[in-house]
C-alpha cells in the first residue's frame, strides 16, 4: 500500500503544474488549505457514517477518497508519505503497531 500512496503523492505534486480547469487536483490545490481541510473532514465523516450503516463497499470507496484528500493535505503542508511512515514505525517500536500515542497534555492546543 505504501507504494500506491507514494505514487498518489507524486501525482498530486505533479498536479501543481497542471491547469485547474482540467485537473481536479490542481483546482483543489489552488483553492488552498481551508478547502483541502474541509474535504478531509467531509470524507472522514462520510466513511464513518458508511461504517455505522454497515455499507462495506461505501467504506472502501470513501476510504480511498479520504486517503486521496489526506495526501493532498500532506502535499500542501510539505509532509511526505515517508514522514508519516517513519512516525508509524516510531510508534510501532515504542507502543506496538496497533496503539496510538497518548495525548501530550503539556502541549498548548491552539485550535
From TrEMBL:
It catalyses: 1-(5-phospho-beta-D-ribosyl)-ATP + H2O = 1-(5-phospho-beta-D-ribosyl)-5'-AMP + diphosphate + H(+). Keywords: Amino-acid biosynthesis, ATP-binding, Cytoplasm, Histidine biosynthesis, Hydrolase, Nucleotide-binding. GO terms for molecular function: ATP binding; phosphoribosyl-ATP diphosphatase activity. The keyword ATP-binding applies. It is found in: Cytoplasm. Belongs to the PRA-PH family. This is Phosphoribosyl-ATP pyrophosphatase. Its EC number is 3.6.1.31. The gene is hisE.
Amino acid at each position: 500500500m505504501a507504494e500506491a500512496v507514494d505514487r498518489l503523492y507524486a501525482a498530486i505534486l505533479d498536479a501543481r503544474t497542471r491547469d485547474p480547469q482540467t485537473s481536479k487536483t490542481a483546482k483543489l490545490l489552488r483553492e488552498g488549505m481551508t478547502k483541502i481541510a474541509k474535504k478531509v473532514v467531509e470524507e472522514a465523516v462520510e466513511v464513518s457514517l458508511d461504517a455505522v450503516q454497515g455499507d462495506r463497499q461505501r467504506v472502501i470507496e470513501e476510504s480511498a477518497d479520504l486517503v486521496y484528500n489526506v495526501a493532498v493535505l500532506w502535499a500542501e503542508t510539505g509532509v511526505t508519505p515517508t514522514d508519516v511512515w517513519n512516525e508509524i514505525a516510531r510508534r510501532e517500536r515504542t507502543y506496538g503497531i496497533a496503539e496510538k500515542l497518548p495525548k501530550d497534555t503539556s502541549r498548548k492546543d491552539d485550535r
